[in-house]
Amino acid sequence: MVRSTLIVRASDALPLAASVDDEPTEQALQEHKQQAKLIFRRITPNSEPLCSIESGQYTLHYLISDNVVFLVIADKSYPRKLAFSYLDELSKEFSTSYGAKVDTVRKPYAFVGFDTFMGKTARIYQDTRTAGAAGNSNIEKLNDELQDVTRIMTKNMEELLWRGDSLDRMSHLSTSLRSESEKYRKSARNINVQAMLRQYAPIGAVVFIVIILLWWRFS
């Protein structure tokens, strides 16, 4: 079940919009909303654009698009595919309505009027039954990136709180490791070639001199 939604600017974590939650929901999610603020502070230009962070009975899913972070707090049992479809739908509408203004606003919750669209969309995605019957919604139009939810990075809130883990791209790290590995392989080949030259160069020089002497003697 979709519980609450937060939208912030990625570059400085400025709140742009949020769902209007009733008092019981606000109280129940108080700790998790604080955790969401921690996530916003940990986001960097190299952070994963799609990520799920498990925290107790809830999971915090976020999507980064055009310098905006869209985060939803949902029940842990709520399907990730639906959570990211919901966020994708929000991001497209938000980009259409406010995309050109995102980098220029200075006051928090400058786009508070977006809560109307969030509320309407959240009701469609409120549970798996209504979401599954949403007809022409994004659920039936997910792109390849959202279809393969196994590629979305999953972390645990404790890792962020106690180990200070970042939200940087694993693919970025993997690329760096491959680059370093290739660099070391080239260095190893060069060292092997130099070693062979040092080992066999004197013998080659002697053989060359002998050949020259023999050619001169019998020519």
Automatic annotation (TrEMBL):
It is found in: Endoplasmic reticulum membrane; Golgi apparatus membrane. PROSITE patterns: LONGIN, V_SNARE. It is a single-pass type IV membrane protein. The keyword Protein transport applies. The chain crosses the membrane at residues 200-218. GO terms for cellular component: endoplasmic reticulum membrane; Golgi membrane. SMART domains: Longin (SM01270). Residues 6-118 form the Longin domain. Keywords: Coiled coil, Endoplasmic reticulum, ER-Golgi transport, Golgi apparatus, Membrane, Protein transport, Transmembrane, Transmembrane helix, Transport. GO terms for biological process: endoplasmic reticulum to Golgi vesicle-mediated transport; protein transport; retrograde vesicle-mediated transport, Golgi to endoplasmic reticulum. Signal peptide: none annotated. Residues 138-198 form the V-SNARE coiled-coil homology domain. The keyword Electron transport does not apply. It comes from the Eukaryota. GO terms for molecular function: SNAP receptor activity. Its main location: endoplasmic reticulum. Belongs to the synaptobrevin family. This is Protein transport protein SEC22.
